[in-house]
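Quick illustration, no need to memorize.
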Amino acid sequence: MSNLSESSRKNAASLIVLGGVLALASAIAFLWGVNYSSNLSNAAYAGLASLVGQTDSTYQLALWAKNLGAVGFIIGVVMTIIGFVKRS
């Protein structure tokens, strides 16, 4: 019975660490995406590039990072909270 408890505690600790790393990485990606995509010169360049049939892949990546970073942060925080609840 104590072996199950020890295994459960290890899984909870792993969930806490994984959730924290995911939240941190997602927050960094989100902040970069917001910073890059809100810069007027980057947005203007992407708009002009689309007029001539080209895409600014860095600008598109920033938009993806902004959207997915927010979702990843929420998932990471929820994973961390679940890990703390299972640990106790």
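The mean pLDDT is 86.
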